[in-house]
Write a structure and sequence with these properties.
mainly beta; disordered N terminus; elongated; Immunoglobulin-like; 2 domains; seven-stranded mixed β-sheet
């Protein structure tokens, strides 16, 4: 299994956003790229006993799919497969190891952990090959089999780590950083005790008033059941005069929420004029000194018809499957869009227009009054 080595730091690079959901595990093989199967040779066999050559280049692999979802019954083995692509220009001598994982506090990133002695499920996952070689720009297919005992039930979460069989030996006082992508694998063993339930913990708009779009929402959902789930749904934006002026999809990546964990989704409505956009240079996001993306106000006149002003509501409707039916949950928040600076400029312009109209009129009236006064004095004489 996975071991710690002195002067080595294992950088577990997750190849995708946390737990992208797939509607069918069996469909993965038809969606995967065309595979060029590697045939074991004598030299590859020797690599299992003779240390393979050390590759000093960073490990560059592509995994397909990025997440495996398996479902079975107790004592019923289930198999699937994944593919590894060698992006480098040299042969890669690789090995597989398995960790378990849980969700972090945000629910959006996995925390990979070593198995505890009491984790008997660590031996339920097996592969057709644990050590193999991939030539450059070639795909390798690995078969994965989950074999649960009759006592197995509910969910199990594995991280299949793909690493090199030999790592570079750092010099004195140096540290070797070795990248190892991990394939998240979620297994459900059907059980009459399964509970599929999500609860809305919070739905807020980050401010009550915005000068310009985007408007930022935060949605926090907790999994109070014992099976991982993926919420789906939308936030419908309504104004005081019109319904559905905007629609925001929640959980567009179909991210899963593990049992006992919460996940916060940060969403934005940016369909307006003018609006703040993230600054980019040479296709890369520009960050400020605090590490936040820099924003600039965009005046795209082709979007002028999307000028936003007044009171709006965000109507959340999210749904999850409890195993028998779709369960909807709703919530509503209010917010205002008031372009203060535009109103100030408009006010100044209006004042100047009024001055431009009233000043000549005042001068004419003043001249007439003077003329009337002079005529009155002449009459009295």
């Amino acid at each position: 299994m996975f071991t710690q080595q002195k002067k080595y730091v294992l950088a577990l690079i997750i190849a995708t956003s946390f737990l992208q959901h797939r509607t069918s595990v069996l469909a993965q093989s038809s969606q995967s790229p065309e595979v060029s199967e590697i045939v074991a040779t004598d030299s590859a066999t020797e690599a299992t006993t003779t240390p393979p050559p050390v590759n000093l280049q960073p490990l560059s692999l592509t995994l397909s799919p990025p997440t495996l979802l398996l479902e079975t019954d107790p004592a019923e083995p289930v198999s699937s497969s994944f593919q590894v692509f060698n992006n480098s220009t040299e042969d890669e001598y690789l090995q597989l190891s398995v960790l378990k994982f849980t969700a972090d506090q945000t629910g959006s990133s996995p925390i990979l952990q070593e198995f505890e002695p009491e984790d008997d499920f660590k031996n339920w996952l097996s592969f057709n090959e644990e050590r193999f070689t991939i030539t450059p720009t070639t795909w390798k297919t690995i078969q994965v089999t989950f074999t649960p005992p009759p006592s197995a039930s509910l969910s199990y979460y594995y991280a299949i780590v793909i690493s090199r069989q030999s790592n570079p030996n750092p010099g004195s006082g140096e540290t070797a950083v070795v990248g190892a992508p991990a394939l998240l694998t979620l297994v459900t063993v059907n059980s009459p005790f399964a509970k599929q339930e999500l609860q809305l913990k919070n739905f807020i708009v980050t401010k009550k008033m915005f000068e310009f779009l985007p408007v930022e929402f935060e949605l926090t959902v907790e999994n109070t059941g014992n099976i991982y789930l993926a919420p789906i749904g939308n936030i419908f934006i309504n104004s005081s005069k019109k319904s559905d002026v905007g629609v925001i999809q929640i959980n567009a990546s179909n991210g899963l929420i593990l049992p006992g964990s919460t996940r916060t989704f940060k969403l934005s409505w940016d369909d307006g004029f003018p609006r703040y956009e993230t600054q980019q240079e040479n296709g890369k996001i520009v960050y400020d000194s605090s590490g936040n993306p820099k924003k600039k106000l965009s005046w795209d006149l082709t979007r002028a018809q999307l000028f936003r002003f007044g009171k709006f509501t965000g109507h959340l409707v999210f749904i999850y499957d409890n195993g028998m039916r779709d369960v909807p949950t709703e919530s509503i928040v209010d917010f205002w869009v008031i372009p203060v600076r535009l109103l100030a400029v408009a006010g100044v312009l209006l004042l100047l227009v009024l001055i431009g109209i009233c000043l000549p009129l005042f001068m004419v009236i003043k001249k007439l009054l003077r003329k009337t006064g002079t005529t009155t004095k002449s009459t009295k004489k």
